[in-house]
Each structure stands twice: as C-alpha cells, then as structure tokens.
Amino acid sequence: MQMLNHSYRGLGLLMQLNWDRILFVGAIVAALFLGAFLGSF
Q1: How far is Cα of residue 26 from the mean position of the Cα atoms in its chain?
Q2: String of DSSP letters for 16-39
C-alpha cells in the first residue's frame, strides 16, 4: 500500500511539472482533427 501511495504521488508530481507539454500536444492533436473534419467537406 505504501508503494502504491508513493507511485501515485510521483505520478501527480510528474503531471504537475509537465501539464503544459501535455496541453500543447493535446492542442496540436485537436487542431489536426479539426482540420481533417473541415477538410472532409
């Protein structure tokens, strides 16, 4: 249980440090999907 708690805190710290990178990648993927959707008409 203690190992699970440590790994959960580590994952939370990793997400806190890299949230802007994840948001950037998500925005690029969303823009690609939107472009493909608009290009299909």
Answers
A1: 6
A2: HHHHHHHHHHHHHHHHHHHHHHHH
